[in-house]
Write a structure and sequence with these properties.
Helix content: 40-55%
Order of helices and strands: HEEHHEHEE
Strand order of the largest sheet: 3-5-4
Largest sheet: 3 strands, antiparallel
Structural class: alpha+beta
Shape: flat
Distance between the termini: 42 Å
Length: 153
């Protein structure tokens, strides 16, 4: 087995640095926040930025409210939930993050075409979010939910 090329070595160092910077950022979010004055209690309160994000209980409740508002009175009981991932070999981390928008758009266009070919009327409703993989690699993956869609066969 040959030693890594210069470019592979630089890429590995960049990936490692991105991972370290991300964890430093998350740690910093727990230490920084917003200070508010509460008149009714006559005291200041500190809300860490972390608690305002989607990973906190308050963040999850806020997302739930937004989804309910976006869905309106449809009361969706069926839907398709899918996760798209990047192959972690042959593609560097930076390229994945740079191209994720184009890849999502291609996938959604293919689903729209699939729906149209099967005679389905109406627009394609969906919600999506991009997240880094947990662990050491931070490659992106995308969660997409298609409310009301019964399958992708």
């Amino acid at each position: 087995m040959s030693s890594p090329s210069y470019l592979e070595s630089v890429n590995n160092n960049v990936n490692r640095q991105v991972h370290e910077d991300y964890h430093d950022y998350i740690s910093g979010c727990k230490e920084h926040g917003i200070i508010l004055w509460r008149d009714e209690e006559q005291k200041y309160i500190f809300i860490p930025y972390y608690e305002l994000g989607r990973y906190s209980e308050g963040g999850r409740k806020a997302i739930s409210r937004k989804l309910k508002k976006a869905l309106g009175r449809k009361n969706v009981r069926k839907g398709v939930f899918i996760t798209l991932t990047f192959a972690q070999t042959g593609v560097d981390l930076l390229s994945c993050w740079v191209n994720i928008g184009n890849e999502i758009r291609k996938f959604l266009n293919n689903v729209k075409m699939w729906k149209k070919r099967r005679g389905h009327k109406g627009s394609l409703d969906y919600f999506w979010i991009v997240e880094p993989h947990r662990g050491n690699n931070n490659y992106p993956h995308v969660h997409i939910f298609f409310p009301g869609l019964e399958g992708l066969r």
